[in-house]
Amino acid sequence: MPDKVEPAQVIAEIKTRMQKTIDSLTKDLAAIRSTRATPSMLDAVHVEYYGTMTPLNQLASIQAPEARMLTITPYDKSALGDIEKAILKSDVGITPSNDGGVIRLNLPELSMERRQELVKQVKVRLEECKVSIRNVRRDGNEELKKMGKSQDELKGLQDDVQKVTDGFVHKADELAQAKEKSILTV
């Protein structure tokens, strides 16, 4: 039988798991396009390179020289065509232009309709994050119940877990609001 787990350890584990959820949300939101071009927009793009699906950022240098342009400079020039195909297949929604050495992605101005679609994506990611945080809270509360504490002690510990949960939900809301604002800013 392993050593007895202390309530503080359970709460620390809850915080760690909730922080991972927030980190995941941050990464997801970075991949959603806003009005500025960012290399993280291409994080989800994988290129078939010598028979292996490889993340684009491992095959090329991705830069944002202007607010609405990305340049992709492959480390291996022979991968240029494969990179271009992967971008076309992805859900980035931008047609690449290739000059034989560098691929350029010019981001068109976002229409208000497209901005609203992107805001909906942000809201979906936010809700997924909140559900994940609540699941961690539920798991933590179940773990605390198994400890055989008195009702008063258990209630106090569950209140602590709820405070931690509220803090992480607030962080998630702030991240989503910032992303929505950057999408809707013209």
SSE layout and pairing:
Blueprint: H1 7-31, E1 46-49, E2 52-55, H2 56-59, E3 60-66, E4 69-74, H3 80-89, E5 97-98, E6 103-106, H4 112-145, H5 151-184
Antiparallel strand pairs: 1-2, 3-4, 4-6, 5-6
Instruction: Tell me what the CATH architecture of the largest domain is.
Output: Orthogonal Bundle
- In total, how many beta strands? 6
Order of helices and strands: HEEHEEHEEHH
Instruction: Find the CATH topology of the largest domain.
Output: Topoisomerase I, Chain A, domain 4
Low-confidence stretches: none
Which shape, going by the Cα principal axes?
A: elongated
Tally of distinct domains:
2
- Compute the CA-based radius of gyration: 22 Å
Percent helix: 55-70%
- Biggest β-sheet: strands ordered side by side in the sheet: 3-4-6-5
Largest sheet: 4 strands, antiparallel
**Proportion of beta-strand residues:** 5-15%
Distance between the termini: 60 Å
Kindly describe this structure.
- The protein is an alpha+beta fold and 186 residues long.
- It has 2 domains: 99 residues, Ribosome-recycling factor (Topoisomerase I, Chain A, domain 4); 68 residues, Gyrase A, domain 2 (2-Layer Sandwich), CATH 3.30.1360.
- Helix content is 58%, strand content 15%.
- The protein has 5 helices and 6 strands; from the N terminus they run αββαββαββαα.
- The strands form 2 sheets. It has a 4-stranded antiparallel β-sheet with strand order 3-4-6-5.
- α1 packs parallel to α5.
- It is elongated and about 70 Å long.
What are its keywords?
2 domains, Topoisomerase I, Chain A, domain 4, elongated, 58% helix, Gyrase A, domain 2, four-stranded antiparallel beta sheet, two-stranded antiparallel sheet, 186 residues, 15% strand, alpha+beta, 6 strands
